[in-house]
Specification:
The complex is a heterotrimer of chains A (about 270), B (about 280) and C (about 290). Chain A is mostly helical and about 270 residues long. Chain A is built from 11 helices and 2 strands. Chain A has 2 domains: about 150 residues, no CATH class; about 100 residues, no CATH class. In chain A, strand 1 and strand 2 form a beta hairpin. In chain A, helix 3 runs parallel beside helix 6 and helix 3 runs antiparallel to helix 11. In chain B, the strands form 2 sheets. In chain B, strands 6-7-8-3-9-10 form a 6-stranded mixed beta sheet, with helices on both faces. In chain B, strands 2-1-4-5 form a 4-stranded antiparallel beta sheet, covered by helices on one side. The termini of chain B are far apart. In chain C, the strands form 2 sheets. A 6-stranded mixed beta sheet of chain C has the order 6-7-8-3-9-10, with helices on both faces. In chain C, strands 2-1-4-5 form a 4-stranded antiparallel beta sheet, with helices on one face. In chain C, helix 3 crosses helix 4 and helix 4 crosses helix 5. The longest helix of chain C has 18 residues. Chain C starts with a strand and ends with a helix. The chains are: A mainly alpha (about 270), B alpha/beta (about 280), C alpha/beta (about 290). Chains A and C meet through helix 8 and helix 10 of A and helix 2, strand 6 and helix 3 of C.
């Protein structure tokens, strides 16, 4: 059912990676993702995979759990591989009717697949080892310089954290409304596309009304508790770097240097 | 000077139809005056639509009177620069347990008010701990609010208000969506905070059983205060209460019926123990 | 009409390490025309149980038989079953979505595939049956008061002409008068039309006042299935399940314990009043 969907599935464990400051994890993950696309030589992926494997082991998250995160994007993965295989020009390996597969295409598809897998696993490590709240705090902290150009950083972070709080409630509510309409004979399964789209109305209208009511209530509750934006606000759980964070940054720099060395040696 | 002074407050709003034309004016609160002394436990009763919740929202400066004034601890709610201080002095707990918890973890929700007030980090933690302990929810501090029962969620909401160190708490139908056990938990927490911490409590409800512990009860109807007095005084007027779409606790009703049938019982019996004792006297046991 | 629940078992989170057995071997019968009360602590499995009655949930084992047919058979017409067993959820006004009350009430019969004239007729009838004025039909349901909205939601289920009406805490959030009016309406429906009613409630006083039979759920099991008097006589066991007897039952028990000659079986205000007045009359008669 709907309630089985979990967003930002946090895996509770006590590991070095869990204890890292969320800013460290956020920036390191970004650096890692960028590194996957900066260099084109196959050798770099060996290093990238090795680095990721090390982090996964340190995080104490079971590998099987990690791989589960790939399932929802399996389709995207296959699609990318297929597109690359079919539409890259070069030395023809195999051809039938209008379909041609080239050597470059196969290579390209392989790199793309490896990149995507590493990318997804890499970001999974972050979401699995960081609670949504801490992640939101990190995003707020990392984006803070943008305040200068009037980006409402605090508000964005607050919105994200409220969304995370209310997603499970609204999923539950959707489930309840669906059942209530089914009890009134509604049918969400049969019929053509248009009929099915129309059958969503009895779910969506009550759901929107409820969401607005909740938003209204919540705004009132926040104001009643003296919320007035980010100005003059203190933090209950401020972020503080520890020694391990600086070490982590050093390791990430080393990794990036390694990637650059391997990537460059071949190209220049 | 009481902690809360409501002086001849009227609240009107303009009803509009879909094209935004004025359809009429509704007077939700109509010339209500009441003063609350520090440390009192006040209950405001009324059927749905009697104006009790609208009145409550005035005390926390969510709504402003069309006429008259509301003064909280010496501050008129219309003074904009006092807004935060007013809201900190008179905290508010709402009806729906799901729609007022902001934090994703219990302790973070309790910390939300103090964070907004600019309390230093170390003190926030102290306040969170003492507030959660005051409502008996400390052991749940690391829970997600979604995993708690309705009664526990409301206790968290009360703790979240206490963490702001208010002098007064207004509870707007905090038990309306709870099961009997949840209601019991919440009322017990409210009474304890009133007894021990001497926090002034204003409880808005339509559950008659909940008001028997109050010092004074106000019954609202059509925006006005229709009855006021101690619970005993109020509950001795059973037929008037019924006319106001309210009932009385079953014990009180039984006593009232027996008395009407000629059994010599005192007025306004509120608890099971009182009724049993009074009847035992009648029967000479 | 007869509904039989036969050894129902239902578990949440199957296949994980957090299995919750919400229904544990639940069997009972709903007879034609009876008013059945279903009570239990929050989390006792009541809500899960009522969702089985119209096949919204499928049991892991066991089944439901409606008029002798197994409703979880592959070919069984469950859509029609949902019209026969009308389920009104908690806070049913939260499911309203149409522009007018009339359209809202038409939703159920329309889904059953009836002809428009028949749908119209059923809808008007249902609006009348829940005690709403006919003029309300063209108004938006969202402009009504809370109590009226709830009646519209109940009408939208009644319009499908159910033989069993299941109501999950129909009075939640209503004020005392609204609660009494709604319960009287339900009792009237059952008296006039002979439909069966299953009333899920947290109020022991209401259950004692209105129902013929009570089913008590605790931790997914049926603990009692008996008359209100017999069930509330077990008030100590009920307390252990987080429930209680009506207040008057406690008073009568107290009086009896104090040596006053009352019938302590009473569960309603009227019964308590009668037995105490009878005892009082005897006291006066004996000239004390």
């Amino acid at each position: 059912m709907l309630r089985d969907i979990t967003i930002g599935q946090y895996y509770a464990a006590d590991s070095v990676i869990h204890r890292l400051d969320p800013r460290t994890k956020l920036l390191a993950t970004l650096a890692y993702l960028v590194s996957l696309f900066l260099f084109d030589f196959p050798g770099v992926y060996v290093l990238a995979a090795f680095f990721l494997a090390l982090v996964v082991i340190l995080s104490k998250v079971p590998f099987g759990y990690m791989v589960k995160g790939l399932k929802p994007v399996l389709f995207l993965l296959l699609f990318t591989v297929l597109m690359n295989m079919l539409f890259t020009k070069g030395e023809v390996l195999w051809s039938y009717w209008k379909i041609t597969i080239t050597k470059e295409g196969v290579m390209q598809a392989f790199y793309m697949a490896v990149r995507l897998i590493l990318l997804i696993l890499g970001s999974n490590v972050m979401t699995l080892t960081t609670t949504p709240t801490r992640l939101t705090n990190a995003i707020e902290a990392v984006m803070r310089p943008l305040k200068v150009i009037r980006v409402p950083v605090h508000e964005i972070a607050m919105m994200m954290s409220i969304a995370l709080r209310f997603i499970p409630i609204l999923l539950d509510e959707t489930d309840k409304i669906m059942k209530a309409q089914q009890a009134r004979g509604a049918d969400f399964e049969s019929g053509n596309f248009i009929q099915r789209a129309r059958s969503m109305v009895p779910i969506l209208v009550p759901l929107f009304i409820s969401a607005f009511r909740r938003a209204n209530d919540l705004a009132m509750a926040m104001e009643a508790r003296c919320y007035h934006g980010g100005r003059g606000r203190t933090q209950m759980k401020p972020l503080r770097y520890a020694l391990r964070d600086w070490l982590a940054y050093a390791v990430v720099l080393l990794y990036l240097a390694g990637m650059a060395v391997i990537g460059r040696r071949i190209f220049w | 000077m009481g902690i809360i002074n409501i002086n001849k407050v009227t609240y009107e709003y303009i009803r509009r139809d879909e094209e935004n034309n004025v359809e009429g004016i509704t007077t939700a609160v109509d010339g209500v005056s009441l003063a609350v002394e520090p440390g009192e436990f006040i209950a405001i009763l009324g059927h749905n639509g009697s104006g009790k919740s609208t009145l409550a929202k005035h005390i926390n400066a969510i709504l402003y009177p069309s006429e008259g004034s509301v003064v909280v601890d010496g501050m008129d709610t219309r003074e904009d620069e006092k807004l935060l201080e007013i809201r900190q002095t008179a905290g508010m707990v709402f009806q729906n347990p799901d729609n007022q918890i902001i934090g994703q973890v219990v302790e973070e929700d309790v910390g939300f008010g103090p964070e907004n007030m600019g309390v230093p980090t170390k003190e926030i933690w102290e306040r969170v701990e003492e507030s959660l302990k005051a409502v008996g929810m400390y052991e749940y501090r690391a829970f997600s609010p979604n995993k708690l029962s309705g009664g526990r969620k409301q206790r968290v909401s009360i703790a979240s208000v206490i963490a702001m160190h208010p002098k007064c708490i207004i509870l707007d139908e905090p038990t309306a969506m709870l099961d009997p056990q949840g209601r019991h938990e919440v009322i017990r927490a409210i009474r304890a905070l009133n007894d021990v911490e001497k926090i002034t409590m204003i409880l808005i409800t339509h559950y008659m059983e909940e008001v028997i512990y109050a010092d004074r009860v106000f019954v609202m109807d059509r925006g006005k205060v229709a009855m006021s007095g101690t619970p005993k005084e109020i509950f001795s007027r059973v037929s008037e209460l019924k006319e106001l779409r309210l009932g009385v606790p079953q014990v009180t009703e039984l006593a009232y019926e027996l008395k009407r049938a000629g059994v010599p019982l005192p007025d306004g019996i509120l608890s099971r123990k009182e009724l049993t004792e009074a009847l035992c006297r009648v029967f000479g046991k | 009409m007869k509904l039989i629940a036969d050894h129902l078992v239902y578990e949440y989170n199957r296949g994980t390490n957090q299995v919750v057995r919400a229904l544990d071997d639940v069997s009972f019968v709903i007879h034609s025309g009876e008013l059945l009360g279903l009570i239990g602590h929050t989390g006792s499995g009541k809500s899960t149980l009522v969702q089985h009655l119209n096949a919204l949930l499928k049991p892991d084992s066991g089944s439901i038989y409606y008029d002798g047919a197994d409703v979880f058979e592959k070919t069984y017409d469950r859509k029609t079953l949902r019209a026969r067993v009308g389920l009104v959820f908690q806070y049913p006004e939260h499911q309203l979505f149409e522009e007018t009350v009339f359209q809202e009430v038409c939703f159920g019969p329309h889904n059953m595939g009836l002809a428009q004239e028949q749908v119209d007729e059923l809808a008007y009838e249902a609006i009348r049956r829940v005690g709403l004025p006919e003029e309300i039909a063209d108004q938006s349901p969202f402009d009504l008061s809370g109590g009226q909205k709830r009646r519209v939601a109940i009408a939208s289920v009644l319009a499908m002409k159910p033989e069993i009406l299941v109501l999950d805490e129909p009075t939640a959030g209503l004020d005392p008068r609204g609660r009494d009016e709604l319960l009287s309406m339900i009792v009237e429906l059952r008296r006039k039309e002979g439909i069966s009613v299953v009333l899920v409630s947290h109020s022991m006083e209401d259950v004692a006042e209105y129902v013929d039979r009570i089913i008590v759920m605790d931790k997914g099991r049926i603990r009692y299935d008996d008359t209100p008097k017999a069930v509330f006589a077990q008030y100590r066991a009920l307390e252990e399940m987080g429930l209680a007897a009506p207040q008057v039952t406690y008073i009568l028990q107290d009086l009896k314990a104090a040596g006053i000659d009352v019938n302590a079986e009473g569960t309603t205000l009227r019964e308590a009043k009668e037995t105490i007045l009878a005892a009082y009359a005897r006291l006066r008669g004996s000239g004390k």
